[in-house]
């Protein structure tokens, strides 16, 4: 694991110049959760040459065998802690309110990249979404795994658009926050590899902004005009 981190570091000598290039080696990715998002991103990441290990509470289900077959490239399925233990990158594709107990079950995540796509959900009496956790779910994940590198990404749009960005009719952006520049480069390469546009929104302390994007996206469906987030890079 340490050698892989060193090689990655060398690949990431200049974060600015590599931010939007495909800097990733072949990685082992634990996809924890096999629902909508996990079963969309797993095959997409496998198509880039990465090995996907699905972490499931019940990895022997027929639907997971189908998912493993559909994913290909040496994919497999096992229990959640076993998948995390074997991976360099751990994706938390589970409901946000399952994360605390999940984190206590996943074992030692030191040195790994944790990709957090979760959207904390809380609906008030007026029917509007609001912040369910402070400062953010991603920062809690970082507290629970202080020696890991938490990156928040893939939370600002529906899974179907992520794997079919052409359906949006133009460039589809994925905002990313995290404190580890090297980890962000790697996540940016996954984003870019599957045809999306990575945008660095700063350190992890801005994760609440990304989680808030889900809140206003959802509330617009209740009180305003539904929209999707497709940021365009500013021209020179
Ligand atoms: N769906 C989207 O378009 C989308 C987009 C952006 C972000 N997100 C975020 O991504 C996360 C996953 O969303 P999703 O739509 O994929 O949800 P989902 O379809 O409900 O799937 C979640 C998966 O997590 C696992 N799981 C469920 N309860 C669990 C628990 N208590 N402990 C551990 N694992 C549990 C299950 O996999 P196993 O049965 O195999 O264990 C389940 O299939 C959510 O936090 C969501 O906010 C979703």
CATH homolog superfamily: NAD(P)-binding Rossmann-like Domain
Strand order of the largest sheet: 3-2-1-4-5-6-7-8
- Principal-axes geometry comes out as globular
Mean pLDDT across every amino acid position: 91
Compressed to H and E, one letter per element, the order equals HHEHEHEHEHEHEHEHEH
Q: N- to C-terminal separation?
A: 40 Å
| SS-based class | alpha/beta
Top CATH class: Alpha Beta
The total tally of domains equals: 1
Largest sheet: 8 strands, mixed
In CATH, the architecture is: 3-Layer(aba) Sandwich
Classify the helix fraction into a percent range.
25-40%
Name the ligand types: NADP nicotinamide-adenine-dinucleotide phosphate
Instruction: Report low-confidence residues grouped into runs of 5 or more.
Output: 10-23
Strand content: 5-15%
What does this structure look like?
The protein has 236 residues and is of the alpha/beta class. The protein has a single domain (2-223), classed as NAD(P)-binding Rossmann-like Domain (Rossmann fold). 39% of the residues lie in helices and 15% in strands. The protein contains 10 helices and 8 strands. It has helices at 2-11, 15-18, 36-46, 62-71, 80-85, 99-105, 137-144, 159-163, 181-193, 207-223, and strands at residues 28-32, 51-55, 76-78, 89-92, 113-116, 149-152, 173-178, 197-200. An 8-stranded mixed β-sheet has the order 3-2-1-4-5-6-7-8, sandwiched between helices. The radius of gyration is 17 Å and the shape is globular. The termini are far apart. Bound molecules: NADP nicotinamide-adenine-dinucleotide phosphate (NAP). NADP nicotinamide-adenine-dinucleotide phosphate (NAP) binds next to helix 3.
